[in-house]
Amino acid sequence: MKNGKLVIGIISIVLFVLVAMQSCAAGLSNALSSNGEVSGSAGLLLAVSLLIAGIVAICTRAGGKGGYVSTGFYVVAALLALLCAGSYSDLYIWAVISLIFGVICFILTKKQN
Predict the structure, then answer these.
(1) Which pLDDT value is given to residue 4?
(2) What are phi and psi of 106, to 5 degrees?
(3) Region of 74 on the Ramachandran plot (φ > 0 left; ψ -120 to 50 alpha; else beta)
């Protein structure tokens, strides 16, 4: 259980960098084209949520109820990103990955407690 949360946390922190850079580019593209989409901002929120959830998953890997907090961050960010993706099609991929991480984190926390 501990190793699973550690791996998910590390992958989330690495994905934060990638998603944040892509989201900044998508946000700049949205601003330059004046299309009114918020996919860049939603991607940036997903990236920050990945970072927070990854840190919480790493810190709470030894036990406790903190795993549910990281699950909440993963799931809420994924739902927000799915709703606001627009023309930024990679955001769908990152949202599904975040949702999968949330489910795995929930299962690992449930088994651990």
Answers:
(1) 86
(2) -65, -45
(3) alpha
